[in-house]
């Protein structure tokens, strides 16, 4: 939600309330009291169930700290590389787990990631002109941002705007992957990476749903062997070969 300049009710005192106040202020929210008639969101930091019930009765969405059963929304742990935000949530199951994951992931994201995002925004119109077909454009940008690519997002880049000009339309290719186990956690690193990149899946046999779910949601699924001549972009030939 965009909170810049918007009022958010905060109830409670102490470390938990201070932490939520910092989070809300960083998002640009105006912290107000319970009597505010403008607010549509509220955070109850002291576990006051009666206050949460009053606010919810007024139609507000409420977060009650450390009480996921009373929450209409949760506040994730955040990695901030403005304008890039990575939010790690557990649906209220464990704020400690979300924080631990943030601490592990934070060092992986370069400080200049925001500059890369701004360069891509600045090049949006020129990329549309160069690649008017949206699928071709998406694949060209994907090639730039791929692991080890000219604009690998996990690497530092001195001049991302210049690198964007090197984007090329990706040629069509087909990769064969044999699936022998229904456990998606047993996929090889190569298979998992290709599933996340593929434009279409050619499926032979009863490839388990847990495996197919690792692919992009917009990847086309085709229940047949692939053609001899690959379609543009990346196609996967998935073959179910259980042991």
Description:
The protein is an alpha/beta fold. The protein folds into four domains: 75 residues, Rossmann fold (3-Layer(aba) Sandwich); 34 residues, Double Stranded RNA Binding Domain (2-Layer Sandwich); 52 residues, no CATH class; 68 residues, 3-Layer(aba) Sandwich (Cobalt-precorrin-4 Transmethylase, domain 1). Helix content is 33%, strand content 20%. The protein is built from nine helices and ten strands. The strands form three sheets. The chain has a four-stranded parallel β-sheet, with helices on both faces. A four-stranded parallel β-sheet has the order 7-10-8-9, covered by helices on one side. A two-stranded antiparallel sheet has the order 5-6. Helix 1 links the parallel strand 1 and strand 2. It is globular and about 70 Å long.
